[in-house]
Amino acid sequence: MKKYVFIISTLIFAILLANSCKKEVTRIEPDVPKNPYSGVDYGNNPDAIPIDTNSFLGLHKLIFTPKCGVPACHDGAFEPDFRTIEGAYNQLVYHPVVKNNTANSFTYRVVPNNTTDSWLYERITTGNTVLGKMPLYDVLAPWQINAVKNWINNGAKDIFDNSPSIPNYEPSTGGVLAYLNDTSGIRLDTSRDNVVAPMKLPPSSNVELWFLLYDSDASGDFTPGAFLTYNKIKISTHPYDFTGVPELSLTKLSAIAPAFLPIPFSTTGLGPFYHKITINTASYTPGKTYYIRQYVKDASGVLTELPENGSPFYLFTYFSFIVQ
């Protein structure tokens, strides 16, 4: 037993001796590049960038948020919604008036460069006790009213100093009617298998097609299509590809002489139709589906395609026909 203890003690001593004889190694740290900004003193409380009280940012921070965007008012409970600066701007500038005066004098809440026609300015300055001045349970100081006035008269720009433009609604289509020869003939658009299936047209016949094209005014209200321009259609065998297809001109009636015809999908209503064209079905292969696109321009001069390639497929089949 003593022999084993002696051997173990000898081994431990040898290990300690070997470790004590190792050469000491010095770790060399690499040079670290100096940060040129490490010595800059930014201060603990840098001065805030001053806000122009006549800008929309100033109005939103200093007036609309504390005075108007309070609980149960313009915090989402009523329009305009002043909770966010983007929402507030979009619901003011060129935004249609919802609650107007008794004479319906105002179209928009804010009209750039025009406080007289801006409903917002009317509401914060009115002396009409029945209508009530805004804020309803508070008052604006003269400098606050003047800031709103200055912002409007300076163009009602957004927080990025962009000038707004009046909104423009694209023209729309309300449907198509088809008659054998003319409106005194047999109505053919009701020959569909269902409301969005292709119309079934007779062979070698003159068919008069009527399109209910219309636009919307600046307030989004219905405007008959008498003032639309360009007024053409294309007829293709492919629902999406109208490349190289010739345009056919629509006949447009005058604004004072529309044809009041049945509104598609309505059993009793009549609507003002201004656009028509006569096609002869002998020019089309029986049994093949033909798709119709309408092309018009409104006052903006931008060409609108109806329906366009991104429209639901049932619109393509609705504006189509098959010669029997």
Task: Note down, in words, how this protein is organized.
The protein is α+β, with helices and mostly antiparallel strands. It has two domains: 56-153, no CATH class; 172-323, Immunoglobulin-like (Sandwich). Helices cover 19% and strands 21% of the residues. The chain contains six helices and 13 strands. The strands form three sheets. Strands 2, 5, 6, 11, 12 and 13 form a six-stranded mixed beta sheet that branches. Strands 1, 3, 4, 7 and 10 form a five-stranded antiparallel beta sheet that branches. Strand 3 (206-216) and strand 4 form a beta hairpin. Helix 2 crosses helix 5 (142-153). The radius of gyration is 37 Å and the shape is flat. The N and C termini lie far apart (116 Å). The model is unreliable at 1-8 (pLDDT under 50).
Descriptive terms for the model:
alpha+beta, Immunoglobulin-like, 2 domains, six-stranded mixed sheet, five-stranded antiparallel sheet, 6 helices
Content-based structural category = alpha+beta
Broad shape = flat
Helical content band: 10-25%
Structure summary, number of beta strands? 13
Tell me the β content.
Answer: 15-25%
Q: Summarize this, please?
A:
The protein is α+β, with helices and mostly antiparallel strands and 324 residues long. It has helices spanning 2-20, 56-68, 85-90, 119-125, 142-153, 313-318; strands at residues 172-180, 199-201, 206-216, 222-224, 229-236, 248-249, 251-252, 259-262, 270-273, 275-280, 289-297, 303-306, 320-323.
